[in-house]
Amino acid sequence: MAIKQSKGERAFTIFNYLFLGAFALICLFPFVHVIAQSLSSQRAIVSGEVLFLPIETTFLAYKEVLMDQHFLKAFSISVLRTVVGTFVNVFFTCLMAYPLSKTYIKGRGLILFMVVFTMLFSGGMIPTYLVVRETGLLNSFWAYIIPTMISAFNLIIVKNFFQSIPAELEESAKMDGASNIGILFKIVIPLSMPVIATIGLFHAVFHWNSFFDAVLYINDRSLYPLQVYLRELIQFDQSEINLRDNFEQQLLANESLKAAALISSTLPILIVYPFLQKYFVKGVMLGSVKG
Amino acid sequence: MQNGTTIEANKPKLDIKTDIKPKKKSALLKYWDLYLLMIPGILFFLIYKYVPMWGIVIAFQDYSVFAGVAGSEWVGFKHFARMFQADEFYSIFSNTLLISLYKLFWGFPAPIIVALMLNEIRHMLYKRSVQTIIYMPHFLSWVIVGGIMINLLNPSTGIVNTFIQFLGFEPIYFIADDSWFRTVLVASDLWKSVGWGTILYLAALAGIDPQLYEAAKVDGANKWQQTWHITLPSLLPTIVILFILQMGNILEVGFEQVFILLNPLVYNVGDVFETYVYRVGVTQGQFSYTTAVGLFKSVIALIMVVLANKIAKKLGQNGLW
After folding, report:
1. Exposed, middle or buried by CB within 10 Å (0-12, 13-18, 19+), for A259?
2. A69-288: CATH homologous superfamily?
């Protein structure tokens, strides 16, 4: 069809392209700037010369960050948490979602209601903290894993997906003598890979990024994840602000170091992100609009 | 057409019923293995979601860690009375509400508008590139985003202040300035979440029947009229559901974000319920008092969801339930 645009429409189209392009640049710009800083010399940063390109390129900051024992330790805790946590999330979500996808299971309505209710009301920070404490998870690696074992929202999404799998497939497997558990692992889960990959990605990002439960439940420095390490590096507390003038020189000396640490901790996500994008977009659409 | 589809849809359904439906008495026995699968999940929800709800009773006690819930003394509404008498309660309440309303005002319509604009882009490569870039900030932690913000807004080396000085003005210490702190919160939240927020709306837009637009074109509707009479009404159910969910979060301003950017210089404009509960509850051990504060917040949130849902139904929309 030949498209005839009025003047107004053409003006809108041009504006539209420019606006969205500008918005994308605003989203991208802070990264580029921080990357440029991480590769620049102190002098260039302090004198405000660094914009989008590194000035007086040096890899010193990266060398220093990657040689830092604390950084490496925190990095490995974060990797461990992400791997174990994501596996636990996906595994137990599937286990619970499968029976709930069967309309003939008794008590299903009640259990579903209980799950959904937790999305509307919660005990709050302190009672949850006390339960974690009572269950002996304070200062334990499992405080990262167990209290976030299942997300109600993702459980519902997976349950809905399981429900959409044709019952005939399972029936024929049953004819061949497969057990319910066998059907779950050999038929239902392989057929549900799109949705499982999506919630897996979301849980992985959650674990990699989460910061607050470490602050809340963990005092043992050897268990601190990357986000807490970063927080301590970039944090400015009262003393820093009050003594700003005296400390200014020291603080400035850190600028490229901070930038390098920020980029090193973001890199894993930025690297896998483009490959996963098509999956999560599809996955979000699968579950959420219909609820 | 309609009759045909209903008959077709009914047929397999009947088969399933006769094939799988169990004899009444033995559901639990017959499907014992399925029930077994649910046990870890049910235990998780009971212990880490429902026991804390029950733990709210400590708001009515002088909770002592050593005596536990059973042994602590009941004190009625003492902690609530203290809360309503404390000056800081009102500043925390208004901070939370204001920050939340600002975020709602800027952050709720923004993804709808961006999604509508993206939807008009015909050049697929351009559209996909923009999408890829604007989703990205969602995947960063608040620690990272906070770090980037602190870096950009730094009064002596930050690029924003370098620019302000270039224009001949005094540098602004955004993050430690009462009049700027909330703006920083709202802006960084927008930066992080607008792109991601468009996904649901784009999904809804993709679901609109193109025949509607063709019919409208035949009737001579221009782009604006098509947007107003077809696109927006089609998006309305999605908008309503997301709005109801937002109302439930009206006192939930995003703990990590505020916690990471907050500093003592801006407590009077930036301290919110959750940062206060953390600081006074966990670090100072005042469990009962802060549980009362948290309960107040949760109850308001629940009331807001129920109200928003009612209103949505009154207006003829499908609510959450």
Report:
1. buried
2. MetI-like (1.10.3720.10)
For residue B190, pLDDT beyond 60: yes
Give the Cβ contact number of residue A55 at 10 Å. 17
Nearest CA in chain A to B206: A285
Length of chain B: 321
Is B318 within 8 Å of chain A by CB? Answer: no
Is residue B61 helix, strand or coil? strand
Asked if B134 and A24 come within 8 Å (Cβ–Cβ), the reply is yes
pLDDT in tens, A132-141: 999 999 999 9
**Range from A168-177, A240-249, B279-288 carrying the lowest mean pLDDT:** A240-249
- Give the single-character DSSP code of A35: H
Report the pLDDT value the prediction gives residue A243, as an integer from 0 to 100: 46
Considering chain A, tell me which residue range(s) the CATH 1.10.3720.10 domain(s) occupy: 69-288
Helix (H) or strand (E) holding B62: strand B61-62
The closest alpha carbon to B298, from B255, B248, B243, B245, belongs to B248
DSSP A228-285: HHHHHHH---HHHHHTHHHHHHHHHHHHHHHHHHHHHHHHHHHHHHHHHHHHHHHHHH
> Taking Cα atoms as reference points, which of A18, A161, A256 lies closest to residue B130?
A18
- B136 vs A27, A146, A208: nearest CB: A27
Is B148 part of the contact surface with chain A (CB cutoff 8 Å)? yes
Indicate the angle between helix axes A244-287 and A69-100, nearest 10 degrees. Answer: 20
pLDDT tens digits along A255-267: 788 888 888 888 8
Out of A54-58, A157-161, B84-88, B255-259, least confident range: A54-58
State how far the Cα of A178 lies from the Cα of B275, in Å rounded to an integer: 52
**Contacts of residue A285, Cβ cutoff 8 Å, sequence gap at least 6:** B199, B200, B203, B206
